[in-house]
Specification:
The protein has about 120 residues and is mostly helical. It has 5 helices and 2 strands, in the order βαααβαα. It is elongated.
C-alpha cells in the first residue's frame, strides 16, 4: 500500500512564513530567492498539483490533500490517515508452530541454566 500526502499551504500562509524567514535570523537559512520566483507562478503550480493528484490517485495508492497552514493540524491528519491505513491492513503477528515453541522453550532453559 502506498499512501501519498500533499501538504497544501495557502498563499497567505506561505507569505507569512517567507516574511518570518526574512525577519528571524535563526530562519534566514530557509530563505531562498528562487522561492520568490516560484511564488509568482502560484496559480500555475496549483493547476499542476491538481492535475497531478487527479492523474495519480487510485484506490490502492490514494492522495490525501492536507491543509497545512497549521502544522499541528496537518500532522494530526497525516497521523490519522496512517493509523487508518495500517488498521485496514488487518495485520497480525505470525503464528508460531509447535516446533518453534519447543525451540523457544529449549533456548529459554539454556539461558536460565547458564551464567
Amino acid at each position: 500500500m502506498v499512501v501519498k500526502f500533499f501538504l497544501h499551504v495557502s498563499k497567505n500562509e506561505q507569505k507569512r512564513r517567507f516574511l518570518e524567514r526574512a525577519d528571524n535570523a535563526d530562519k534566514n537559512w530557509k530563505f531562498s530567492a528562487s522561492d520568490m520566483a516560484d511564488r509568482r507562478l502560484w496559480d500555475q503550480y496549483q493547476d499542476t498539483y491538481q492535475d497531478m493528484i487527479r492523474k495519480t490517485a487510485s484506490k490502492h495508492s490514494p492522495w490525501y490533500v492536507v491543509p497545512a497552514d497549521n502544522k499541528w493540524f496537518s500532522r494530526m491528519i497525516v497521523a490519522s490517515a496512517i493509523i487508518d491505513t495500517l488498521a485496514s491492513l488487518d495485520l497480525a503477528y505470525p503464528r508460531v508452530s509447535k516446533e518453534q515453541l519447543k525451540e523457544i522453550a529449549d533456548a529459554k532453559q539454556i539461558l536460565l541454566n547458564s551464567k
